[in-house]
Design brief:
Shape: globular
Strand content: 5-15%
CATH topology of the largest domain: Rossmann fold
Strand order of the largest sheet: 3-4-5-6-7
CATH superfamily of the largest domain: NAD(P)-binding Rossmann-like Domain
Distance between the termini: 18 Å
CATH architecture of the largest domain: 3-Layer(aba) Sandwich
Number of domains: 2
Order of helices and strands: HEHHEEHEHEEHEHHHHH
Helix content: 40-55%
Number of strands: 7
CATH class of the largest domain: Alpha Beta
Structural class: alpha/beta
Length: about 270
């Protein structure tokens, strides 16, 4: 998700720093951005000039100190509360007092992430959708302490990078994950029960409900391990068994069938 967010910001004319914990990961992110822009040129959706200008706006870093002058920092680290909290602690120490700290979490409590900071009012959720350079929605999540000006600045920024923004409150699963994960878990149960193939279930949702991608292919794209963790979290927080991951999903994750990133999930990649 991080490289996709950097991609759309750079193509919207903004200076971007792409950060990761080591140089190989940073380089991998830039390669993905470059590959997506090349595809855009080949399809006639992006000019060569715009591609080159966008890439020129992206700086690379493995040091958080390099982010000190940023107006907004969006984290896209793994969906683990402690990891996000620790990163935000480190960022608070290097950023200016007016910088916005945004989390791309798809389900974790924004308030809990913000709770470890001296100034939690600067934290907001910015839930992007994959692939970021194609999907137009940006779900902005505010917790009770988020300042009004932080929300306004985030909304304006979202519009500048070409996103349609919705604003939701900090409830487990927000709006999109709560609905999307529930559909995804039921789709997996249908495969588990032999109702239909993954391909036909996805086709039903794409052709029958106009979803851009079916729930099982989307699960592969997000990562079965990521969706498994989110499902367990939502089932616990909401007390709703509809979110409980099916045994098929647990077995696939245990076998390393994580979806697109491992090469095999409900589909071969």
């Amino acid at each position: 998700m991080g490289h996709g967010i950097a991609h759309v910001c750079a193509m919207a004319g903004q200076s971007v720093i792409l950060f990761d914990i080591d140089q190989p990961r940073v380089d991998a992110g830039l390669r993905k951005i470059t590959a997506n822009l090349h595809k855009g040129v080949e399809k006639g959706k992006v000019t060569r000039e715009d591609r080159d200008a966008g890439l020129a706006r992206i700086g690379l870093s493995t040091s958080l100190r390099d982010l000190g002058g940023c107006d907004i920092v969006v984290e896209a680290v793994p969906e683990k509360l402690s990891v996000k909290q620790e990163l935000f602690r480190e960022l608070e120490a290097v950023l200016g007092p007016e910088a916005v700290l945004a989390t791309n979490t798809s389900s974790l409590s924004v308030a809990a992430i913000a709770s470890v900071l001296a100034d939690p009012s600067r934290v907001v959720g910015t839930h992007f959708f994959n692939p970021v350079h194609i999907m137009t929605l940006l779900e902005i999540v505010v917790h009770r302490g988020t300042r009004a000006d932080v929300l306004e600045r985030t909304q304006a920024w979202g519009q500048r990078i070409g996103k349609e923004c919705i604003t939701v409150q900090d409830f487990p699963g927000f709006a999109t994950s709560r609905l999307g994960v529930c559909i995804g878990m039921e789709a997996i149960r249908m495969v588990e029960q032999g109702v239909a193939s993954a391909e036909d279930i996805d086709k039903a949702m794409v052709l029958g409900y106009r979803h851009p991608v079916g729930p099982l292919r989307l699960t592969d794209m997000v990562g079965l391990d990521v969706r498994l963790a989110i499902g367990d979290y939502l089932a616990r927080e909401l007390g709703n068994p509809a979110f409980t991951p099916p045994e098929l999903m647990r077995r696939m994750v245990a076998e390393g069938k994580l979806g697109q990133k491992s090469g095999q999930g409900f589909y071969g990649w």
